[in-house]
Amino acid sequence: MLAGLVYQETGISLSDNKVDLVKARIAKRMRKTHIRTLKDYIGVIENDSNEFACFIDAMTTNHTYFFRENKHIEYLLENLAGGVRHRIWSAACSSGEEPYSMAIQLSEAGLAFEIHASDISDSMLETASRGIYPKDRTRCVPLPLVQRYFQQGHNKWQGHYKIKSGIREQVKFFKYNLISDPAQEQYDVIFCRNVMIYFDHETRQHVVNKLYQSLRPGGLFAIGQSESLVGVEHPFKYLRPSIYCK
Ligand SMILES: C[S@@+](CC[C@H](N)C(=O)[O-])C[C@H]1O[C@@H](n2cnc3c(N)ncnc32)[C@H](O)[C@@H]1O
């Protein structure tokens, strides 16, 4: 029943081998909300939209880090034209490392851009807007760029970095559900990485159709390096592994 709710809301298929993980995540929410039985917890999420949002948050996998699978951004640096403003969408941005990684590198290259970044998870969007991260998340960022774009945290924020405001202000975050929200205005680039692996074939097809509609002709589309559009019907032109063009 709970897996059905998650599927309906997010498109995420919680297969049988995830039962233990799901149980552990629900148990954590129950402890936090002081609810003793699963039946009571289900009653709460059916009637309380705040706890329902926390439940959905708890069911999503948000793992990410700065400069993850950076080949996609390197491709943008090699192929985006100078002298025009590029409209970029990081769909399923988690806690923001992906769009900030783009903003840092496109700024370094002197390209003009606006980045919109979305996720289904309220808590991830909050973290993303705040822009404070454990240092470990920057392990793949070259040191000179860390020094230029991050501020060291002190006292309570020891061991953390904050993205400097110049970069933070270049990324606009918004809540967007890939399953149920309508196609967006035309973007020049869409990244939708490391989320479709959690979707079944039908959901993937639905999301790819919607993202295709949200791209302008000639626009670029990147998926995660371990993902594939095999089995999905689409009119994209294949450019290189996990990069496509409309
Ligand atoms: C593993 S993270 C990927 C982050 C980043 N794109 C990357 O590659 O590092 C997957 C994200 O997808 C989000 N997500 C899951 N289902 C979603 C949906 N239906 N609509 C929008 N975002 C969703 C989750 O909240 C999570 O933050």
Give helix and strand order, one letter per element, not per position. Answer: HHHHHEHEHEHEEHEEHEEE
Structural class by sheet pairing and helices: alpha/beta
Q: What is the fold-level CATH name, i.e. the topology of the largest domain?
A: Rossmann fold
* Binned strand content: 15-25%
- Proportion of residues in helical segments: 40-55%
- Widest beta sheet: strand line-up: 6-2-1-7-8-10-9
Bound ligands, each once = S-adenosylmethionine
Global Rg: 19 Å
Q: What can you tell me about this protein's structure?
A:
The chain has 2 domains: 58 residues, no CATH class; 175 residues, Vaccinia Virus protein VP39 (Rossmann fold), CATH 3.40.50.150. It contains 10 helices and 10 strands. The strands form 2 sheets. Strands 6-2-1-7-8-10-9 form a 7-stranded mixed beta sheet. It has a 3-stranded antiparallel beta sheet with strand order 3-5-4. S-adenosylmethionine binds next to loops.
Short description:
With 246 residues, the chain is of the alpha/beta class. Helices cover 40% and strands 21% of the residues.
Please describe the structure with a list of short key phrases separated by commas or semicolons:
246 residues; alpha/beta; Rossmann fold; 2 domains; three-stranded antiparallel β-sheet; globular; binds S-adenosylmethionine
Which helices and strands occur, and which strands form pairs?
Layout: H1 2-10, H2 19-33, H3 38-47, H4 49-59, H5 71-79, E1 85-91, H6 97-108, E2 112-119, H7 122-130, E3 132-134, H8 143-149, E4 150-152, E5 160-163, H9 165-168, E6 171-175, E7 187-192, H10 201-213, E8 215-223, E9 237-240, E10 243-245
Parallel strand pairs: 1-2, 1-7, 2-6, 7-8
Antiparallel strand pairs: 3-5, 4-5, 8-10, 9-10
The structure holds S-adenosylmethionine.
S-adenosylmethionine binds at residues 10-12, 60-64, 68, 92-94, 98, 119-121, 124, 176-179, 193-195, 224.
